[in-house]
Amino acid sequence: MNPPQAAATPTQDPSAARGAWRWLAQETAGWFNTEGPRWLFVARTMLASFSALWLAFRLGLDAPYTALATTVILALPSSGMVLEKAFYRFLGTLVGCSAALLLVALFPQSPPLLFVGVALWIALCTAGAAMHRNQQSYSFVLAGYTACMIAVPAIDTPEHVFTLAVTRVTEVGLGIICAAVVHDVVFPRRHSHAVMRTVQARYASFIAFSIQVLEQRLSPAETELNHLKFAADIAALESGRAAAFFEAGHARAHTRQLHAFNAAFMAVLTTFYTLHRLIHRLRGAAPAHAKPVLALIEPMHAHLAQAMGDELTPQRMAQMRARLAADTAAARAQLAADIDAKLAAADDAQLAVDGAVPPERAQRINFDTAVELLERYARDIEAFACLYHGLTQEKRQQVSDPGAYSPKTPPAIVAASGFRAGVALLLTAAAWYWLAWPYVGNAILMATIFCALASSSPRPTAMVQQVLIGFLVATPLAFVTEFFLVARANDFPTLVIAALPIFALGSYLITSPRWAGVGIGICMFCATLVVPTNLMHYDVEGFISSELSLTMGVAVAYLMFKVVLPEHTMGQKDHVAAALWREAQRACTAPMYRLKRRFDNRVRDLLSQLNAASGPAPGAPVRAVVRQGLTLLELGHAVIELRQLIATSQPGPVPAALKLVVGELAAHLRAPSRAGGQAALQAHPARRRQRARRAAHRHAGTPAAPANRADRPAFHLHVPAGPDHYRRNRRCRVR
Predict the structure, then answer these.
(1) Of 182, 199, 225, 206, which is closest to residue 83 (Cα–Cα)?
(2) What would the pLDDT profile of 655-704 be if each residue is shown by its tens digit?
(3) Whole-number Å distance between alpha carbons of 56 and 174
(4) 394: left (phi > 0), else alpha (psi -120 to 50), else beta?
(5) Sign for the pseudo-dihedral over CA of 343, 348, 349, 355
(6) pTM of the predicted model, to two decimals?
(7) Residue 439's closest CA among 339, 553, 357?
C-alpha cells in the first residue's frame, strides 16, 4: 500500500509581489513629484515662521507677529526668489521708516496735514511700484505702506515714532533673516535650475514655431498669439534671471549670458516676424507681382525648415548657411533671366501709371528684401543657438552687455495707481475721524497695502477679491484657534501645535496658482490676530473689532479698483495700444544710442502686459492690439535701420531725402491720417527718382532703367492706422 502523498502547499507568486512593489514605488514617486514639493514648501515656511516667532519672544519684541508675518510674505517657491524679495523688503522698510520719521517731524501736531503728507507719499510709492512691476516694485510698495504703519499709530504720540520705526526694522529684519536662512539651507530649491528649464523650453518652442510657420502650418491668428506668448516669456525669463542672481554660486557671467540669450531671442523673433509678414503680404498681393517671387522663396523656406529639424550645432549651421547661399544664387540668376528681357523691352508709360511700381521692378525688390531677411534670420538663429548651447553646456562665453531690460508701463496707468492709493488712504482716514472707532486704523493699513500691492497686477480686482475671501474663510478658523486652542497653550511647543494647522492650510493654498490669494489672506489674517504677544490679552470684543476693520480695509481696496478709474489697470488694451503708438513715435525721434534695444524691450514688455491681462483666451479686440503692436514693431525697426543708414552715409541728396521721409513719418505718427501716410511714402527718394525717371524717359522716348538696391525701402514702409482709428473700429488696418 502506497503511503498517502503530502498535500501541495501553495507558494507565493514572486511576480505579484514585484508588481505591488513597482506600483508602490510609482505612486510614491508620483506623489513626490506633485505633492511632495508643495508639502516641502509648507514645511520650510512653517520652520521659518515659528523660528522667527520664537526668536521674537526671546528678544522681547513688542510685536512678535510681525516677524512671523514677514516669513509668510517671503515664502516663495525658490531660494533665489526669497532672497530677492527679502532684499527689496528690507530696503523698502528702511526707506518707509525714514519717510515716516520725516513726515511726523514736519507735522507733529497737525493730523490732517500728516494724513495728506502720508497720502502723497503713498501715491508716489504706488506709482513707482506700477512703473517697475518686478521685485523693485515691491520695494516701492514697502516704502509706501511702512510709512503709513509707522506714522498712523504715532498721530497721538509723536514722541514714540522713533521707537516704532526701530522696532519695525528689527522685527522685519528678524523675519527676513529666518526666511532667508531656512529657504536657502533646508532642502533649497534653486531658481537657477528653473531658469535653465525655462531656457530649454523657450528654445524648443521657438524652433518648433519657426518650422511650423516656414511650412505654412499656422494661421496668421495663431502666429500672432504665439508672438504674444513669446513676449510674456521674455519678461518672465528676465524676472527669473534677476532672482537667480541672488543665489550663491550663480556667477555674474552666467547672468550676463542669460541677458544676452534674451536679447538674441528678441532679435531673431523680430527678424522672423518681419520675414513672415513680407511673405504674408506677397501671398495676398496680385499674382503677377507675387507668384514669381513666392515660387523662388518658398523652396528656400522648405530647405531652411528641414535644416532646423536637426540639432543646430555649429557644423549644422554652417551647412544651412551654405545651402541658403546656393539657393539664393540660383534663385537670383533665375529671376534675372526672367525679368531682364521684359524690363528692356517694356514701355515705361505702360509699366508705371499714376505712380504704380512696375511689376518686374517690384518683384526684384521683394525678392532682394526676402533674401536679406532670410540671411539675417540665419545669422540671428545662429547667435541664438550658440548662446543656448553655451548655457546648457555650462560654457563661459564672452558676451557684450546688451543693455538692461526696461519695463514700460503706460503713464496713465502709473498716475491712476498713485491716485487710487492716495484717495483710499484719505477716505479711510476721513472714516476714522467721523466714526471715532479706534480700530479703523487697521482698515487704513489694509486698504493702503492692497491698493499698492495690486497696482502691479494685471487683474487687481481678482487678486484683492481672493485675499478678501481668504480673510472671510480665516475669520471662524482664527476665532477657534485663538480662543479654544492657543488659550490652552502653556509653552511654546504647545503654542506651535495649536497654531500650526491654520498656518499650514494657508501655506498649502499659496502653492496653488488658483488659490494663492486665498492662502495669502488666511496667513496674513491669522498672523495679525492669532499669534500672541509677550503680554497676551484675550478679548473677544477686540478680536471681532479687529477682524471687521481688517476685512473692511480689504473691501475698501476692492471697491477702489472697481469704482475709481477701473479702466486704468495694468495691461488694459486701449492703454497698451496708445503706448505702442508712442513707442513708434520715439523710434523716429529718440537718440540713436541703443535705440533698437530699448524699442524692442518696451514693445515686448507692453505685449507681455497685454498677455497677462487678457488671460489664456484673448478676444478679438486684444488680437487687434497684438496685430497693431507687431505692425508697429516692424515699422519701428525699419525706421531705426533707416536712421542708422542716414547716420553712416555721406552727405548728399539721398540722405537728405531719407531724413525727409523720417520727418514725414514722425509727423504722421503724431497725427495719423491717410494723407500723412501717403506723404511719408511719396517722400521716399525711390518714389521721387521713379517719377523723375518716368518723366525723363517719356520726354526722350526711351524705356525706364531697372530698379536699384536703394529702391527697396520705398515699397515696404507700411503705415498703420492710429490709436484713435483703432478705438473707433476695434481693429487695426494697415494702410
Answers:
(1) 182
(2) 787 888 888 888 878 777 666 556 666 665 555 444 444 433 443 444 33
(3) 8
(4) left
(5) positive
(6) 0.81
(7) 553
